[in-house]
Amino acid sequence: AKEIRIGVSAPITGDIAALGQSTKNAALMAEEEINAKGGLKVGKEKIKVKFVIEDDENKPESTATVFQKLINQDQVLAIIGSQSSKCSNAGAPIAEAAGVPQISPWSTNPNVTKGKQFVFRACFIDPFQGKVVAMFAKNRLKAKTAAVLYDVASDYNKGIAEVFKEEFARAGGKVVAFETYTTGDKDFSAQLTKIKTANPDVLFLPNYFNEVPLQVQQAHKLGLKAKVIGSDSWDSPDLLKLGAEYLEGTYFSNHYSPDVKNPISDKFVAAYEKKFGMKPDAAGALTYDAAYIVFQAIEKAGKLDRKAIRDALAQTKGFKGVTGTITFAGSPDPVKSAVMIKITGGKFVYDSTVNP
Amino acid sequence: MHTIQPEWQIMRDRLRLGWRGYAAAGVYAALVILVMLAARYQWSIGSVELANPYYLHNLTLIGINVILVASLNLVNGYLGEFAIGHAGFLAVGAYASSVVTLLFHQSFWVALPVGALAGAVVGYLIALPAFKTFGDYLAIVTLGFNMIIVNIIQNLEVIGGPRGWGGQPKMTSFWLVAVVAGLSLIILRNLVYSNYGRVWLAIRENEIAAEMMGVDVMRYKMIAFVIAAFFAGLAGALWAHYQQYIHPSSFTYLRTTDLLVMLYLGGMASLSGSVLGVTIMTVLLESLRGVLSQFNLAEWRMVISPLVLIVIMLTRPQGLMGNREFAFVPRREEVPRREPARG
Amino acid sequence: MKLLEFLDVEVAYGAIVALQGVSFQVEEGEIVTLLGANGAGKSTTLRTISGLLPLRRGEVRLGGVDLRKLPAHEIVARGIAHVPEGRGIFANLTVQENLELATWTRKDKAQVAADFRYVYELFPRLGERRRQLGGTLSGGEQQMLAVARALMTRGRVMLLDEPSMGLSPLLVKEIFRTIGEINARGTTILLVEQNAHMALKIAHRGYVLETGRVVLAGTAAELAADPRVKEAYLGG
Amino acid sequence: MNLLEVRNLSKRFGGLLAVADFNLDLPEGALYGLIGPNGAGKTTVFNLITGVYPPTAGSVKLAGRELVGLPAHRITQRGVARTFQNIRLFGGMTVLDNIKVAFNYRTGYHLWGAVLHGPGFNAREQAITEQAYELLRLFRLESRYDQLAKSLPYGEQRRLEIARALATNPRLLLLDEPAAGMNPREVGELVELIRWVREKFQLTVFLIEHQMRLVMNLCERIQVMDFGETIAEGTPAEIVDNRRVIEAYLGEEEGA
Amino acid sequence: MYTVIIQQALNALQLGAIYALIALGYSMVYGIIRLINFAHGDIFMVGAYIGLGVALFLKPPFLVLVLVTMGLTALLGVTIERVAYRRLRHAQRMSAVITALGVGIFLENFVRAAISANPQAYPVLIAPRTLSLSGVSTTNVQLMVIGVSIALMLVLRYIIRQTMLGKAMRAVSDNKEVVPLMGINLNLIVSATFALGSALAAAGGIFYGQAYPMIDPYMGIVIGWKAFISAVMGGIGQVDGAMLGGFILGTVEVIGATFRSTLRDGIAFAILILVLLIKPTGLLGRPVTKKV
Ligand SMILES: Nc1ncnc2c1ncn2[C@@H]1O[C@H](COP(=O)(O)OP(=O)(O)OP(=O)(O)O)[C@@H](O)[C@H]1O
Ligand SMILES: Nc1ncnc2c1ncn2[C@@H]1O[C@H](COP(=O)(O)OP(=O)(O)OP(=O)(O)O)[C@@H](O)[C@H]1O
Ligand SMILES: [Mg+2]
Ligand SMILES: [Mg+2]
């Protein structure tokens, strides 16, 4: 039987395996939904969709191999992935050279799409988010001084941290401590002790959800008083499981909030919860959106041709997804709004929307 | 000595490459050409394309890893040390060559030797203090330098820092890797079957006795280490201009661990073992990928592959080819089938 | 009474057959010596008895009990005390600790204490150096410790593998004197020696091994007088 | 003319004075012995001469040139070779390669030669192989040339170790208990071998041994150590009658 | 300023104690059978998961929980030795090391595939209390981690120095061929070694879960390497050395992070290399005498 194959490159093993799992979940869900409707309508016929999901181990070198396999062995029409920017960066030259449209759900580093014809993303980029958080700290929280603790070995964390530093200073604030650690660390007390001496108004932690609880907890134990803010990497149901009490009253920026009345998002969250027994994280939601953007593009292209799909993708306009409205007009980086979420009563609660 | 002429005949022949050597080189070259032709004219059996770019990609990676593993074998197999910082030199080669092409806008043909030499120079600087220690202490010192190299890269914004660095021109191709890997293997083989290889093995077997044979142990250790670093640098330069994007996380101990597994799987002190180890590991991991993704079981790949590794090690503890070579790797004094005749 | 029996034993290291059908026996209370050139299979014989090597064929019996299926540590517990070639001292344990370990299987606390007194009396040098690490002892002292350790296992049969190797003439004499003394107190001894002169002096009987076969057997006096033995092992 | 002159050589390990004021004049072509109880410091003297340990004090001159301070491999290159009390062959290498290692500092080719395996390289390697093989022949080991050293029987390992030492082209050969673990007949053969080697290679030999048969048969003069100190020195006949030597080393009756 | 120094010292102690606990097991297995058990970090991880399971399903008192977890993890360690290492005991050293790497990767990914890739929150088994004294804050958990690991070291030290088992273990490390000739079952001693080392790692896992209450399948990798580094720095094979090494690595990392956190790893390793250059066999390692 004829089928439409779409590749997914996900970090199923390795340091962000949890994210790989939600990527896989979201992809399979999209696959199931579309096939339940008989598949995609291409030209006159309906064709079923098959996602080929491969483990890129969150390693750039493995991602390259995965892309080669997906493109040449599985003959996929498009690739969703990878999640971390370093992996998308390693895959992008391959997709570009082979003329296969690639859409990364979650790679926020500006370089990923730079100079590429075939590479897109479903999320906003680091500079935007860094600016959103800096403005929020300055204007909403009325902070005068700020401290940052981030993972120096991770491009994502570092990217946002630096934009934040710049934007916060531009807005008239002062960054009094700018501390780092390395992926896999569990003890941050040395850095936090140093931060404590600088006595900042806010502490910005643009780090992954599996590290943030330890950081806030240790900050708490050291008696740090600063308000804590974070970024989209906080978004995971596990964040609260791991340390709700210390996170009370903290804020983070995100791609979307289930609280914002949006039928698409409501439906997605409900279905996901039903199927997998947990709330989806942003990576899952973005993967789901990416899948549907690709679906739409294939149908619009009207033929199973990579170049045509790419052209259709580039014309995506006003796509309504779980994470908001996505438009690729003239740029592979969508112009999207961000939301700020506050952790209240052990829950993620929508706080405000920041438009670009 | 007239009486021992018959044995001499045998040995003299073994000193040369001999027909086996030429045959091996010929077969290798023919295979490479075949693959290239298959790629060029898209030969296929049924619907299976023979030189599918994915296969070509894996062959290319095998070639790069062969350079890495075979050179690491000098230090860990022949010299018998336990160095676990090889990924550091890979990083040096990758980044140094990228500096040449991306920052100085020079040709890749300049960058390639620069990468290798940078590896060698850094290797030399590290070997100086590292060989003051030995055994597991040497392991930690080499690991430490590897981490320091990665940490320095993370802190250098001009070369991308933790974001990684992309945009290298795609200069490395399958045929280039095939040629470079082939030449590297010939060079390593030549070294191994010379005074150097002999002395390395002697140091491995008994360092003090080697010293009593007049061996400047430190010097020979340094030579092995620097040569290994040279080839790692070379591999790094090739790799950076193949993948067109490099990231510090690709050069940590996890990468070195992969190399060690391939090395010891193939067997210590065996160049054909290194080739075999790399090939088998790559083929194993990729075929698992192929099979498992059919059933959406990608998450079991890393569960099954270590089990296979363990079973192989338990059944062949010395590695697939430990201390042995395939017959077609020409070697002096290989064991003759008959006792040498007394003349 | 036959205490130790070795019946038609074949042992191999991979493809190398080290013993090809060796038979001999040791009576209770005897000193029996095994002579042979380097590589004849003497050490292999001892290692087979104490279960360190598996048999390919044949039988080993201690007081009628088949030892073949037992692991080495149980064979020791049944009364074989083996002083290995090269002594095998635990270098980072003290003299006292080396001896204590040899009592691992023993439950008779009182007898153990008495045995400690006995060996320290037999080897006063060891008594002086109870707290010294085994590895720092001189060669002769290490040899004494190895013998003492074997005594502490309370073996009925002591297997000694070249106890005089590397010792000064004075110590060689002392070791042989001690072997005689241990035997006089009731321990049966199977002695492997290159120093055939001394071995035949204290042994009751002996066997000569050549490339894994017994080629000669007899009383010590017979062997010492045999021209072949004279030629090959006594240096003419 | 003395080939080896050792003056006031001492070595201290922590609190232990392993060698105290050791002196030796070894004439060119001589065959001397060193005996003494276990732990007397004999092997340590060899280790000091060959540069394995630096001495605490003293000097060692080979043909008038100071050896103390040189690294061990330089001392070997100057012409001092040795064997070890417990055999130290390159067990995992072939018999022939064991010998060929000794040529490492006079291969006559450099790294480039080895990398390229050019004609010069091949000629030199062949010459080395020929010389090594010739040595094996002299030691009746040629039929074993391609076996791993560790697979040889003990006696042949001893022979190989001596052959390997000779391959470094020494002027002075130090043998540490060459007869250990040999039976009397084998010792007899070893005596002949050492004599023959000395003639054939024009060597000066200094050896440590506990088997008096060998020492008395072979050595022109003997030096006796105890607790690091030299307690006697003389011809074999003088030594066997020396009271102190009998008390410390030989025991009451004549040596076995 | 003083408060910062004291605070940092406490931080260093806690981090060091965790490294030290795991380093102990590394060092012991190494000291006795010369195997760098690269799976040890993952045994620690599994120990933490077992502790979590026991806590969730049985809800026993803390002490019982620790003992049960130690027992179960010891069983795991013994099984791994039996299945994966015993056959390689007489093979060249590196074969077993590579097998250990394989076992480690297997454990990580098995736990991930079988349980979840998501990090798990660790239940609070000891009610945390923050203690503050003139600007220095610590918690009872922090003090417990430090205290218990020191206590465990003392126990281990006693076992190895004074008991027959300990003597037999040291004998195996000196000369394993001769051990059976003393009537001692070599396999039993090796199993005991793995049992002890794994049990300690399990204890480490639980204390870790109290100090950093979040565990994931890959947490053993980094900690494992650092424990290995600690063990080597202290002089591998030395129980005291492992402890010392752990504390020093903890301190060095804290100093590095305080001084310039982006270069922390670089600084930490530079210091480590320096230590090894000055004392090439680790701080408490016996100098290897090249006895000739
Ligand atoms: N571990 C081993 N592997 C292979 N062959 C061995 C091994 N040990 C001994 N052999 C061989 O078995 C034969 C008998 O050896 P064994 O050690 O029993 O001799 P031996 O009579 O004790 O000699 P020696 O006087 O040298 O101690 C020899 O040919 C020897 O090379
Ligand atoms: N590296 C070392 N460190 C500490 N002590 C040492 C070292 N080498 C030798 N010794 C000690 O020095 C003394 C002399 O040892 P040496 O090996 O020279 O004795 P020897 O005369 O050769 O004895 P044997 O006849 O038993 O071989 C001994 O007490 C020995 O323990
Ligand atoms: Mg023997
Ligand atoms: Mg000696």
Provide a descriptive summary of the structure in words.
The complex is a heteropentamer of chains A (356), B (343), C (236), D (256) and E (292). With 343 residues, chain B is an all-alpha fold. Chain B has two domains: 17-51; 52-342, ABC transporter involved in vitamin B12 uptake, BtuC, CATH 1.10.3470. Chain B contains 13 helices and four strands. In chain B, strand 1 (44-45) and strand 2 form a beta hairpin. The radius of gyration of chain B is 21 Å and the shape is globular. Chain B starts with a helix and ends in a 28-residue tail after the last helix. Chain C is an alpha/beta fold and 236 residues long. Chain C has a domain at 2-88 and 156-233: P-loop containing nucleotide triphosphate hydrolases (Rossmann fold, 3-Layer(aba) Sandwich). In chain C, strand 1 and strand 2 (16-27) form a beta hairpin. The longest helix of chain C is centred in the C-terminal third of the chain and has 16 residues, at 169-184. Chain C is globular, with a radius of gyration of 17 Å. The termini of chain C are far apart. The longest helix of chain D is centred in the middle third of the chain and has 20 residues, at 119-138. Chain D has a single domain (2-91, 153-255), classed as P-loop containing nucleotide triphosphate hydrolases (Rossmann fold, 3-Layer(aba) Sandwich). In chain D, a hairpin with a 2-residue loop joins strand 4 (57-62) and strand 5. Chain D contains ten helices and ten strands. A six-stranded mixed beta sheet of chain D has the order 6-7-8-3-9-10, with helices on both faces. Chain D has a four-stranded antiparallel beta sheet with strand order 2-1-4-5, covered by helices on one side. Chain E has a domain at 20-220. At the B-D interface, helix 1, helix 7, helix 8 and helix 9 of B face helix 2, helix 3, helix 4, helix 5 and helix 6 of D. The structure holds adenosine-5'-triphosphate (2 copies) and magnesium ion (2 copies).
Quick structural summary:
The complex is a heteropentamer of chains A (356), B (343), C (236), D (256) and E (292). With 343 residues, chain B is mainly α. Chain B has helices at residues 5-15, 18-41, 53-78, 86-103, 108-130, 135-154, 174-192, 195-205, 207-212, 217-243, 253-266, 271-294, 301-315; strands at residues 44-45, 48-49, 165-166, 245-246.
Record the SSE blueprint.
The complex is a heteropentamer of chains A (356), B (343), C (236), D (256) and E (292).
Chain B: H1 5-15, H2 18-41, E1 44-45, E2 48-49, H3 53-78, H4 86-103, H5 108-130, H6 135-154, E3 165-166, H7 174-192, H8 195-205, H9 207-212, H10 217-243, E4 245-246, H11 253-266, H12 271-294, H13 301-315
Antiparallel strand pairs in B: 1-2, 3-4
Chain C: E1 2-13, E2 16-27, E3 31-36, H1 42-49, E4 57-62, E5 65-66, H2 72-77, E6 80-83, H3 95-101, H4 109-122, H5 124-128, H6 139-152, E7 157-161, H7 169-184, E8 188-192, H8 196-202, E9 205-210, E10 213-219, H9 220-225, H10 227-233
Parallel strand pairs in C: 3-8, 3-9, 6-7, 7-8
Antiparallel strand pairs in C: 1-2, 1-4, 4-5, 9-10
Chain E: H1 2-33, H2 40-57, H3 62-85, H4 93-114, E1 120-121, E2 130-133, E3 136-139, H5 140-162, H6 164-174, H7 186-211, E4 214-215, H8 219-234, H9 239-259, H10 264-278
Antiparallel strand pairs in E: 1-4, 2-3
